[in-house]
Amino acid sequence: MFDRGWTIFRIRGIPVKLHITLVLFLPYVAFVTSTQFRVIAEAVGLPRSEVHLPPLVWGTILAVGLFVSILLHELAHSFVALSNGVRVRSITLMMLGGVSRMERDVKPEREAWMAFAGPLSSFGIALGCWLFSLLPLPAEVRVAFLALALANAVLGAFNLLPAFPMDGGRVLRGLLSSRLGIRRATRVAATIGKGMAVLFGLLGLLSFNILLVLIAVFVYMGAAGEQGRSQFRQVLEGLPVAEVMTSRLGEAHADERAGEVARRLFRQNLAGALVVDGDGEHDGHDPDHVLGVVTAWDLARPELHRAPDATVGKAMRTDVPRVHTRDDAAATLDALVGGDAEAVLVLDEGEHVVGLVTPADLQRAITLLGAAGGRAR
Ligand SMILES: [Zn+2]
């Protein structure tokens, strides 16, 4: 739910997505700032008559400035991750920062450093904007820089709160996990996150501050999600991918109609299909001929409904993560939650495609192992 967003551009191959919360939040920022800009100006001793541009223009400029600030904050996370050899699958820009989806779990100390890079960059931008506000520029431009400096300082400080899902929660987990182990450290950071969310919620309700209530909901869901993932990981850890994957895999050609393939998946009770190139002269699920993968969810996308002649080539996913049968099943959880993939392709020792792991497969494994009272080994 928090993973969805519209891809607006790519940087070093990483899709940068815009989350619905930010789409709604930016016009709100523009509006509020436009009503407050003259007040802010007066507060720093600038008479109203000195503000020449219409307030709405300043509001829009500052909203765009905030957007760029959040983007730079996320890019700082991603670049530190990349320099640590961690693949970043996507960046989602949200209301109060963003989420950089990493391919796999990293050592907690490294994760702490990656998490710290974001707030650090926000403080850096705040410092830069404050220095600009001291330059002999037109008075209202200086006020705008001052406002941006303040916004970035708040962004940095908020994200540094030592609670999941904020960056500070990751820093805290990194620092705690050498003593408590990663699971207990995750639980502590998530519990603090939930506690803080309840506090924000109460404060928001008592002060009739809708924004604070929204932030509370956001933080609570993020903390709960992080805790849930940690528990799932625990269940799956040490289990080979072969035990959770499905081999009910069909084949489809890129130029086939999506509706036909959907019917075939249903009739033959298949979890998904490999999309292969047109000649059909190969077998053994050689990954070189696999163009992509479609699952039921890919075929059910609304844009395909509107175009009944759409081909499977339009529906398939091409950047599907790959794992091997003997890999740890917890790694597929990271790949599925970390990216926006609906499935992970499973290869055997001979690099042939032998199956798929979809979120439904993981859910089934986690539920059954839970019902069985843990893993019997
Ligand atoms: Zn951050």
UniProtKB/TrEMBL annotation:
PANTHER family: MEMBRANE-ASSOCIATED ZINC METALLOPROTEASE M50B, STAGE IV SPORULATION PROTEIN FB. GO terms for cellular component: plasma membrane. Its main location: membrane. Its cofactor is Zn(2+). One of its GO terms (molecular function) is metallopeptidase activity. The chain crosses the membrane at residues 20-41, 53-73, 112-137, 143-164, 197-223. Residues 316-373 form the CBS domain. The keyword Ubl conjugation does not apply. It holds the Pfam family Peptidase_M50. It is a multi-pass membrane protein. The active site is at 74. One of its GO terms (biological process) is proteolysis. This is Zinc metalloprotease. Binds 1 zinc ion per subunit. CDD domains: CBS_pair_SF, S2P-M50_SpoIVFB_CBS. Belongs to the peptidase M50B family.
